[in-house]
Structure formats: structure tokens, C-alpha cells
Specification:
Length: 167
């Protein structure tokens, strides 16, 4: 499932059964670009991640990419709810649609790894949020794992953003 594609059209939104949850997701994301969706995640990642949970499979990768891009940016600093919510989103989506998550795993796992090694950056103390690393490792029942998670990757996005500023 490619993440780099055009904005999902209404027919893709209506490709599965329509209910109040899909309606809410469509109301928030329908017709929005990735940049517009990222703006929503910056405002309240946990709220809009809940919408992603109910987004039809045809639209899910597009808006998931916006969420992951936000979480790997400086704008997500201190967003413990957003980081924790992403782990929950992927866990729940994997329970409902394991094949979809397996197909997207090469794109999802770097973001999960980033969240795990940067738990402090998100302001997510373990007493309140638990260990992100352990929560992510619990997805191993899917037969998937996140590559080695070590502190060397902490704040890897900072160097990338600094390079962008120099260009």
C-alpha cells in the first residue's frame, strides 16, 4: 500500500460500510491534503488518531503517513498523548486488520522505533504511560518486530531538519 499517493476521493471513503465513526473521520479528513491533516494532528493528535482507527483501508495509508510525519517532527515534542495514542492505534488496527498492518509495517516500524527511543522527548513518563518500548514489543504476536531500538536513534529527526534548513 503506497503512502505516496493522491488525496483519497469520496468513493474511496465509501468503499466500506458507513457508520457514525467513518462519518466523523470523513468530516475531519475528507478531501484534506497531508499538510492539512498534519495540522490537525498538531492540534490534537490523540483525537484525530481515533478517527484514523475507523478510516477505510483505501484511505488509511494516506492519513497514517500524515500522522507519522507529525510524530517524527519537532512539533510533536511533549505530545505524550499523541505518541501513546499512535501505539494504541497501530495495536487496535492490527487486531482488526492484521494483513493491512503487515503490508504497511515497513512504513510504520520506523515511527514506532522513533517513539520508543524518544519517550522522554514526548514527555511520556513511564509511571503514567508505561514503557513505549514494551508496548511496541507486544506487537510481536503479529509476527512483526521493530528493528533494534537503541538510544543512538534518539532525536534522529533533528539532524534531518537542520539539513533542510541549510538547503
Amino acid at each position: 500500500m503506497p503512502l505516496d499517493r493522491s488525496i483519497p476521493i469520496e468513493a474511496e471513503w465509501r468503499s466500506e460500510s458507513w457508520d457514525i465513526d467513518v462519518d466523523s473521520a470523513f468530516e475531519h479528513f475528507g478531501g484534506k491534503s497531508k499538510e492539512e491533516a498534519m495540522s490537525l494532528f498538531q492540534k490534537d493528535a490523540a483525537r484525530y488518531q481515533e478517527d484514523l482507527l475507523y478510516t477505510p483501508a483505501a484511505c488509511f495509508p494516506y492519513y497514517l503517513d500524515a500522522c507519522m510525519t507529525y510524530l517524527r517532527s519537532r512539533a510533536a515534542e511533549g505530545d505524550a498523548e499523541g505518541a501513546s495514542g499512535f501505539i494504541s492505534l497501530i495495536t487496535e488496527r492490527a487486531r482488526e486488520y492484521p494483513d493491512e498492518v503487515r503490508d504497511l509495517w515497513p512504513e510504520i516500524s520506523p515511527t514506532l522505533r522513533h517513539i520508543a527511543v524518544n519517550q522522554e522527548h514526548f514527555g511520556a513518563d513511564e509511571e503514567t504511560f508505561g514503557s513505549f518500548h514494551e508496548q511496541i514489543e507486544s506487537l510481536s504476536w503479529l509476527g512483526l518486530s521493530v528493528d533494534e531500538m537503541d538510544d543512538e536513534e534518539a532525536y534522529e529527526y533533528e539532524a534531518e531538519e537542520e539539513n533542510e534548513e541549510e538547503d
